[in-house]
Amino acid sequence: MPQDNGISLDFEKRFEEQQDVKGRLFKTLHVMYRGHYMKLFVSFLFFLLKHSPVWILPIVTANLINFAANPGEQDIQVIWINIIVLTVVIIQNLPSQILHISFMSKAIRHVEASLRSTLIRKLQHLSISYHGELRSGKLQAKVLRDVEMIEIMSKQTMLGVLPALMNVIVAIAVTANRSWSVTSFFLIAIPISIVIVYFFRGKLNRRNREFREQVEEMSGQVAETVEMIPVTRAHGLEKVEINKMDSLLHHVRGKGYKLDITEAFFGASNWVAFQLFQVMCLLFTVYLAYQGRIPIGDVVLYQTYFTQILMSISGVINIYPQLAKGFESVHSISEILFAKETQEYQGKMKLKHLDGAVEFDNVYFKYRDTDKHVLESFRLSVKPGETIAFVGESGAGKSTILNLVTGFYRPTSGSILIDGIPMDDVSMRSFRKKIAVVPQNTILFSGSIRDNITYGLAEVSDLEVQAAVKMSNLQDIINELPDGLDTKIGEHGDRLSGGQRQRIAIARAFIRNPQMVILDEATSALDNVSEKLIQDAMHELVKGKTTFIVAHRLSTIRDADRIVVMKNGQCVESGRYDQLLANKGEFYQIKMASEAAQSSFG
Fold this sequence. Notes:
CATH superfamily of the domain at 2-337: ABC transporter type 1, transmembrane domain
Order of helices and strands: HHHHHHHHHHHEEEHEEHEHHHHEHEEEHH
Structural class: alpha/beta
Distance between the termini: 57 Å
Strand content: 5-15%
Membrane topology: Multi-pass membrane protein
Strand order of the largest sheet: 6-7-8-3-9-10
Main location: membrane
Helix content: 55-70%
Number of strands: 10
Organism: Gracilibacillus salinarum
Protein name: ABC transporter ATP-binding protein/permease
Subcellular location: Cell membrane
Radius of gyration: 35 Å
Number of helices: 20
């Protein structure tokens, strides 16, 4: 909905504003809940109302016992006043509880949804190189599991920590009003709890982090294993994958076991310590009553309040592992929220029209994990409407050039100009709306064929869709399918052949009426008949448009205006098809090698 989009954008802007602030954990929490503090405060007020019977009941009980222990000292109305007060505060618990949860849920659920939306937005804005370094399964774990852990932590704070804090404050305040000696005994319990938490905190945090990292690793491996099932099955490697997952699950189990044991020892230690304190409190208050220093009914009051203090502190200690998991999840998602590796270009100049002139000026490029340059001193001047084909052995830098033109990567040095404008100044969103990219690995989603062809386009007529289908040689396939264009193609288009998937991707390019076309081996999965039909269609698609082509089938680039031969990241030869063959240089060698390979398989 528009409102949610606006809220998500505001959420994203908050994190961007806080980029340079230290203290990532509390910074993240503050940014998440900014704007919701009033809802949480109102929820807290209703909590005080709904929780009041817990504090009033010990006072009423003590008053009634003291009344019974000393008959005749007080009027009978004391009983009725205490009963009426207790009844009223008990009945009001119903509306107060609903309102307490209502305001709390509005804040927490809003933050949960906005946080996931912001993570998705941030992932869309991060650079391609950032995504290349993180497996998709790990990112899924952050978006799903970590946000859920933060939601649980938020609820535990509102439903566990705050009530416990208020129980301690009220109990000490009431007790201090009646007996300072008992109050001083109560206060001893608080430092004990702090010592226990301090002693276990480091180990719990370490165990949680190790377990979280193992779960993320497992999530990434599961996603990879599922994608590899066809390859695994084809080569009979099921046991290899099973053993790999079993080994990883063994590590997860081990980390989880260590975490559980640490949490169990933590919980047992605080329970034993507090039970011993409770026994000492009972003996202390009975002794004071025996000496006549406090009324007999106050023994029950003090014992009840001390029990509340111990239970509250014990409750906080018991949920501390959940809080630790939540804090670790905050740390986990902050790795994405505060990542500064955004897309390579941040230009603001919007292109109203794209002529298609491209200039590579002494471009060098290398990936961050290597010192070897993929491109070295690459120069190329492309005129508007010109079709440029790149050929060469694998690793020569062909696909890298296409990624640089698309703006996925930025030159290590040198510059690229679009219509005479440096790409650093160009708005990538406005530029990419005017280009069409057909990648080597066809990317489809689990919708209908129509949805995949019209992906991202708001209004597309049936005539435009039919024209794209016809030009991409999809019509025969569409006619054979039960629901035609509305046929669901399964996840990643798994119900279609490789050639059918590529033709859908080509139709997606046709329907955009681009001003620049980038084809990365777009016909590699097509049979010879389909390839000829697609070539004819592509001839119409690229007419008058700047086109970059990477192809291993040299027959597909016969009509290119220029063929650029790449070797070791450099342009070693350039010219038209027939001209390069006549020169008997690198292109001629590639041609001969290709024909020899085809004849050996023929």
